[in-house]
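Section 5.1 Outputs to date
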Amino acid sequence: MTLPTKSPVRTRPNPFTIAMDAWALAAESSMVITMRMGALAFGGPAAMKEAERMVSEKVAANMALGFDLMTGKLGTSPDQILSGSIAHYSRRVRRNRERLSK
């Protein structure tokens, strides 16, 4: 017998946590943008690879978010959907920051 898995979405996110999560996403996104611009400024094959990666990651992240939204994975209330969307992008931004900071 398998137990149901717990959803990663908070059951009732509040406006304060949503705002703080959005602020953290904006700050971390700014760091990633700065690191990417530095990498792109050098030009060459590495810059081209990073630019291609950047675009393909954005398309994949948006498609995955749309699928999660359509299947109800993000929740049903506007607060749950907003909180889930922020969490969705935060995971990807965090991975990029960690990769680019090496």
